[in-house]
Amino acid sequence: MKYSGLFLAAVAAVFASVPAAVEAKDCEVCIKVIQDIRDSMDKADIKKKPKVEAAMGDYCARSDLGPREKKVCYYIDPIKRDVAQPFSTGMPPDRVCKRINQSNPEICGVKFPIKTEKLEPKDLSKLRVKQLKSILADRGVECKGCIEKEEFIKKVQETEHLEPEL
């Protein structure tokens, strides 16, 4: 019985040392790009690494990509082979993104903008200051002299008419 406490402590130490897994919402743009590439390919070609690399190149060369998808393509382009390996084994897009995020953490740092058209003041108060600053930056507005969260919320509400076109 005295060993069970020691065992539990060892298990807790092991889990504490494991880094937190990247959640799907953290890599939303990467997951979308990988899924779009997979959807554009024939089922038979998904297992072939050269075909996967070619599909990545074709996808990233498209002119209808948004700025965030282009940014993920910019990060993925130099490591196409590293991305093609797990991709060709049939690994799901979120797991592919988690794996390549280990070599380049900026990939999961690319996020879609926060949708604000239907947010009410009480919803804005639930956002972090970093997210409020991001909304203002997307609108091209700087909040000079803003220190408190309420000031950022007020500025976001004042600039709702400047909602960026997506």
From TrEMBL:
**Keyword entries, A-Z:** Disulfide bond, Secreted, Signal
The keyword Acetylation is assigned to this record = no
> Which Pfam family, any one of them, does this sequence belong to?
ARMET_C
The listed locations are: Secreted
Signal sequence coordinates: 1-24
| InterPro entries on file | ARMET-like, ARMET_C, ARMET_N, SAP_dom_sf, SaposinB_dom
Gene Ontology cellular component annotations, sorted alphabetically: extracellular region
**Keyword Repeat in annotation:** no
Q: Which residues form the Saposin B-type domain?
A: 23-112
Q: Entry's PROSITE patterns?
A: SAP_B
Q: Which family does it belong to?
A: Belongs to the ARMET family.
Q: What is this protein called?
A: Mesencephalic astrocyte-derived neurotrophic factor homolog
Species assigned in the record: Pseudictyota dubia
